[in-house]
Amino acid sequence: MVDYHLVQKVKSNKFNVDHLSQYNLYFLLGKQHFKFCVIDTKSSYCMLLEDYLIGSNDQPTEIVDTLKVLFESHHLLNAGFWHTIKLAFLNPKSVLVPNQLFDKDFLEDYLKLNCEISPEEEFYYYRHNSGNMINVFAANKHIVDWFETLYPNLNIHLLHYSSALIESVPRQNDTGQLKSMSLFLNIDSTEILVHENDKLLYCNQFAHSSASEFLNYVVATMDQLEIDPNFSKVQVWGNINNQSEYFKILYKYVRNVSFGKRPSVLNFSFEFDEIPEHKYFDLMGLFYCE
Question: If you placed Cys at 195, which of 6, 122, 175, 278 could pair as Cys (CB 3.0 to 4.6 Å)?
Fold first, then answer.
């Protein structure tokens, strides 16, 4: 069943449809969410952001069917003359591999150590030069083929959404010498990153169905990495606010917790004031991925 619902839409008064060739288009696709934003390459202004719920679809064909209907009714997304298009997948199928152990002929083998692989999935990688590591990930071939057919004259940059987080956080935060934790909450999962001296120590995604389960993963990670909840800095982004059960239970355990900000390199017109700054960091953070 084709089903989608607009959650958020913000459009800058600076947006000019005649300038699409200088705009970057960033997509973030998960099982339940489809988001995109438009960034001006010349001014670094965020021109447009839209967020859709697309149901809870486990079948890639259903996701594509939903996207087809959404795109057909949208006046911009079918345009084919963007400057750059990036498509990031929000799924649990990724693994970080050190440069010295990486061989592009063994992508599937790396992933099999970390998750189950479907015969319909293909394997990709993104090189994080600053961290000397490779993000190997899987994405459904049917979905990738549909996007590539839609934009035949553009080379779509495929990424895992965690790469946007890995690239963005060190540029955004003063990670300092103490270990710091960054939490990115989605509808039913959280990505946890831990840094020390700007070095990534830990990156993992956990699925959860309750605030208590969420807290258990945070606490277990802190214990494993010897992070002091009374002193270490914890920042949160994503699907959370200070009235949510997730924030309240986290604040009971972690004293130095705060909401993160938007990527500091981007500019925003007043229309974006209605969006909390800690939302859509993963989508906007694609700006940092080459």
Answer: 175
